[in-house]
Amino acid sequence: MAEFRVRVSTGEAFGAGTWNKVSVSIVGTQGESPRLPLDHLGKEFNAGAEEDFQVMLPEDVGPVLLLRVHKMPPAMSCLLRPLAQDAWFCRWFQLTPPQGSPFLFPCYQWLEGAGSLVLREGTAKVSWADHHPLLQQQRQQELQARQEMYQWKAYNPGWPHCLDEKSVKDLDINIKYSTAKNANFYLRSGSAFVEMKIKGLLDRKGPWRSLNEMKRIFNFRKTPAAEYTFEHWQEDAFFASQFLNGLNPVLIRRCHCLPKNFPVTDAMVASVLGPGTSLQAELEKGSLFLVDHGILSNIHTNVINGRPQFSAAPMTLLYQRPGGGPLLPLAIQLSQTPGPNSPIFLPSDDKWDWLLAKTWVRNAEFSFHEALTHLLHSHLLPEVFTLATLRQLPHCHPLFKSTGLGIGGFSELIQRSMKQLNYSALCLPEDIRTRGVEDIPGYYYRDDGLQIWGIPSSLETREALVRYVTMVIFTCSARHSAVSAGQFDSCAWMPNLPPSMQLPPPTSKSQATPESFINTLPPVNATCDVILTLWLLSKEPGDPRPLGTYPDEHFIEEAPRRSIATFQNRLAQISRDIQERNRGLALPYTYLDPPIIENSVSI
């Protein structure tokens, strides 16, 4: 007979404890013990508790390989259904034999109802390191169970595959959303909704009366960045800067040759370029940049309040002045087809013509961002990575309603983008090089993102694997923060980022007026719907897990723990550098400051 000590840690989250009875079986190279109850006088397994139990093995089972955990409802639980379904979040088990060092078995899972769970000792192992047949068998059984639990499906044709569940309620207990996040999210959304309702804005289906009237909603939950946007949204330099550090900083690219369907001439841009130069000279210098929203051409649009909405597929030419001056817009064409009905708008045009053209570009930015940069790249693709991980890697492995396009247009955009998507575009260093924006000044998304990426690129080698894993981590954490956290800041003053447009793009100049500008913007209720939504999506709803924070301690070896500490120290230094730089900026760029970045997509 041999006496083992079993130490059990229960999670701290609300509802993590259980009234159910727990026992363990110790599996060794020479056999498996009977079930050994973990029982004290009184209640065990309270939330946040760490408890010790002594168990006696009737026979020696040899060196320990696995720990089998059994959870059963207490006697008479059939009379009390909640006890029979009582879930338990177990953090880990520690098993100490009569002689030798303890074994740690990480769990970090919810166990619901009656059943058993097999845990492995926490040392990270790849498949070829499993030398015992029982470990090999356990690995295969775990993967088979995961693949049965997490099934693929196509939500829409042409979209990335996703988890095969019909609703959030159907999700497995192991994918529980934080109770604190959930409560905070609904409290915030409820209070914001009531505030808008009291102001009488949610039920108004007509247009805004003036820009001044829009200030009524702008006072809703203002932020310093939103106030800066309100003060500067009409300025050309601010318009251009948002392609670098706004919520869609991934589309701008250096232009070495003007597209044939964008016939800008020297005469058009002479007032901005100044004397002694030309378009060709600036193209050769590399000081011109292009933002092309061509993927939006002929996209299906939404119907809001019974009115069809409109969309444009603009091209925007930008100029980087020598000596580190601000990036400036040179010309805007609102379609991909030049001609008399598609004029090229210029900074020298009438104020309202030029402002309306820029606002159409900002509307295209909204559609591109929400459908592709945000939804596709920062939510749908991370779900693919997550599902693939759940299906293929066991625990021991070391590793739309108020928008101009609507769900139909979003779906069409995603289908188009998936046909163009490639691996290099997801890897930040390669994406920066491909777009030719390595040296454009004031590009803080690039500067901060490359620091956090922090891995040299080289899935046939270890370097290629590191690159791939880094891409997944960056996409699910830093990139999501960069394109999500600033949504409200950019959209709180709606004319800066209109979600829909009620009139078609202009086909001639000298037609825009303050009244036609207002009438082109989305109606009052649609504006409020989108601002409410983006305010909720931009704000972490509590229980944050910043990048580099790992409350679930799956790694027990010293080497990975040292790596984690090094990573955390590096993130702390990056944060200090970002905060120091931001002190000198009129509009600080905070979205890639490591304490703000969540470990994963959390909202």
Automatic annotation (TrEMBL):
GO terms for molecular function: iron ion binding; oxidoreductase activity, acting on single donors with incorporation of molecular oxygen, incorporation of two atoms of oxygen. Its cofactor is Fe cation. Binds 1 Fe cation per subunit. Ca(2+) 1 binds at residues 15, 17, 86-87. Residues 125-603 form the Lipoxygenase domain. Pfam families: Lipoxygenase, PLAT. Residues 2-125 form the PLAT domain. This is Arachidonate 15-lipoxygenase type B. It comes from Aotus nancymaae. The gene is ALOX15B.
